[in-house]
Amino acid sequence: NGLITSFLCVATVVLTPALLAALGFTATGIASGSIAAKMMSLFALFYGGGIPAGGLVATLQSIGMTGLGWFGTGTVAGIGSIVGSMISSICNVTVKIEGSP
């Protein structure tokens, strides 16, 4: 039970920055031709030519450039821990069929 929770907690903290970089949210800015660039273009069209501060694209780019920080690391770790606990609970269900030994 605790092993799955711990694994997902660590995995989410380690993989979140790697996933953002793979999407194109890099330390040097949004990568040309990436999914992040397409998101930025779509959001700019939706918002009339600009990207709002604090919006999804701006937040993801901020994390991509600076990392998660203490609050982000704690949040992501907490989410991983909750998901791990849920998966562990689902996997540890015992079903007893009546009439079986």
Automatic annotation (TrEMBL):
GO terms for biological process: intrinsic apoptotic signaling pathway; release of cytochrome c from mitochondria. The keyword DNA damage does not apply. GO terms for cellular component: mitochondrial membrane. InterPro entries: IFI6/IFI27-like, IFI6/IFI27-like_sf. Signal peptide: none annotated. It is found in: Membrane. It is a multi-pass membrane protein. Belongs to the IFI6/IFI27 family. This is Interferon alpha-inducible protein 27-like protein 2A. The lineage of its organism: Eukaryota, Metazoa, Chordata, Craniata, Vertebrata.
